[in-house]
Design the sequence.
């Protein structure tokens, strides 16, 4: 009896250790990603005092944010592959250590050119997303992956950290700093603080996650790992991710300036209101993952795109009115103003909150697709999707700036997002229709046939 019980006890112990390791990996990776995301997008708030100190234009400032986003995008594919092959513990820890150096250098920058270089280097932090996605996917079973990846993805809330604490710290820490200037003051204190936190986080990750790691790509060649990238689904998912993540990254960096320039708010107020967009766009990822596990990623994406289209269309409408010429007996002026529209502060904030809701749920749905379609290649596929999606965050801020300069309307930002969402939604719907028509080719071009055929069959059997 004891001989039979011993393997059962050993098996139970192994399952308990696996569950404990799984929980620690998810918790530590989520904390690490939250910090890395805060570092990656810190220029959304720091950009305002940087613009003032260096006398930058809006376009110059947008490029500081853009180059950080660029470097946080281009290595995502390789970061995911490395994680599948060598394990997330090693790759994530190394990335934390590397990011600490350029974060420190940002605090020492003395020119616009130096800021561009250091901002590009510190952008490596954004690639931590692919590492965490692959790492957590390797530890969690398929029926819980949607929720687990949603929890990890909630680390996007790191984008709000600088916006919440940055303005106050900039004011509290004297410009002269401390320890003879070794600890800098003003806006420079923020990247210095992040450099210290990155080193501490690297130590915590190395000490508190399991030494034994899951490595699904161990023993596979690079060619085998890249094979799934030939499939069109990967590129379709990437476009979805441009909409729900790339646009989120761009807006998280862009919206503080929008509040300051359009509504005349102070930086601290702009940061707090921007957080009302970032919180749902980040913290609802677990909800999106749960819904995707339960109802399917496709239904969740339909809902996400629908809400995005409605909200961005409203936000893209410029304030103003239409002037209609009328007879003088109707109006002595000979014209009449109609369709007055004015997007004031709080309606704007509420609709922007809905954009955050749609993006938060949609981000989780996109990454639920990946382990369903490519269970053995989450690192490579998730890395490419993350890379292309985040590249959207690189191209969009300069595009916003150029569109605003061309049209003179800051609302052009949201019209660009409306067109991008529309293109993605149309592609998804055409794909769904193609799948349904392939499953039922007899109904390809006749939407009425199903009912008519059913009635004909009933009549024939009576």
Sequence:
């Amino acid at each position: 009896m004891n001989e039979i019980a011993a393997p059962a006890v050993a098996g139970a112990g192994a399952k308990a250790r696996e569950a404990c390791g799984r929980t620690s990996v998810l918790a530590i990776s989520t904390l690490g990603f939250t910090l890395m995301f805060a570092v990656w997008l810190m220029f959304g708030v720091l950009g305002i005092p940087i613009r003032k100190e260096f006398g930058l234009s809006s376009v110059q400032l947008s490029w500081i944010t853009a180059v950080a986003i660029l470097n946080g995008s281009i290595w995502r594919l390789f970061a995911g592959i490395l994680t599948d092959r060598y394990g997330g513990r090693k790759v994530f820890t190394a990335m934390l250590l590397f990011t600490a150096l350029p974060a420190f250098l940002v605090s020492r920058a003395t020119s616009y050119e130096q800021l561009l270089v250091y901002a590009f280097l510190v952008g490596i932090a954004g690639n931590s997303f692919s590492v965490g996605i692959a790492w957590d996917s390797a530890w969690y079973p398929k029926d819980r992956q949607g929720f687990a990846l949603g929890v990890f993805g909630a680390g996007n809330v790191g984008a709000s950290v600088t916006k919440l604490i940055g303005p106050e710290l900039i004011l509290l820490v004297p410009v002269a700093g401390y320890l003879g200037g070794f600890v800098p003051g003003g806006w420079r204190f923020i990247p210095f603080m992040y450099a210290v936190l990155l080193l501490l986080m690297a130590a915590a990750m190395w000490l508190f996650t399991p030494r034994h790691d899951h490595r699904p790509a161990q023993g596979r060649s690079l060619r085998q790992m890249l094979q799934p990238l030939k499939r069109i689904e990967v590129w379709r998912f990437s476009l979805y991710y441009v909409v729900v993540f790339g646009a989120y990254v761009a807006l998280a960096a862009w919206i503080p300036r929008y509040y300051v320039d359009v509504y005349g708010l102070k930086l601290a107020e702009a940061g707090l209101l921007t957080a009302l967009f970032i919180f749902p766009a980040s913290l609802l990822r677990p909800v999106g993952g749960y819904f995707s596990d339960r109802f399917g990623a496709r239904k969740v994406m339909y809902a996400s795109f629908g809400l995005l289209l409605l909200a961005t269309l409203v936000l893209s409408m410029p304030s103003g009115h239409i002037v209609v010429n009328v007879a003088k007996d109707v109006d002595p002026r000979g014209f009449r103003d109609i369709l007055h529209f004015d997007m004031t502060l709080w309606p704007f904030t509420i609709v922007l909150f809905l954009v955050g809701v749609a993006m938060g749920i949609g981000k989780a749905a996109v990454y639920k697709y990946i382990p369903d379609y490519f269970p053995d290649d989450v690192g490579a596929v998730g890395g490419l999707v993350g890379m292309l999606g985040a590249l959207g965050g690189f191209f969009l801020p300069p595009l916003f700036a150029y569109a605003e300069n061309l049209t003179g309307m800051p609302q052009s930002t949201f019209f660009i997002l409306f067109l991008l969402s529309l293109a993605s939604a149309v592609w998804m719907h055409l794909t769904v229709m193609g799948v349904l028509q392939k499953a039922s080719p007899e109904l390809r071009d006749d939407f009425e046939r199903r009912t008519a055929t059913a009635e004909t069959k009933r009549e024939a059997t009576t």
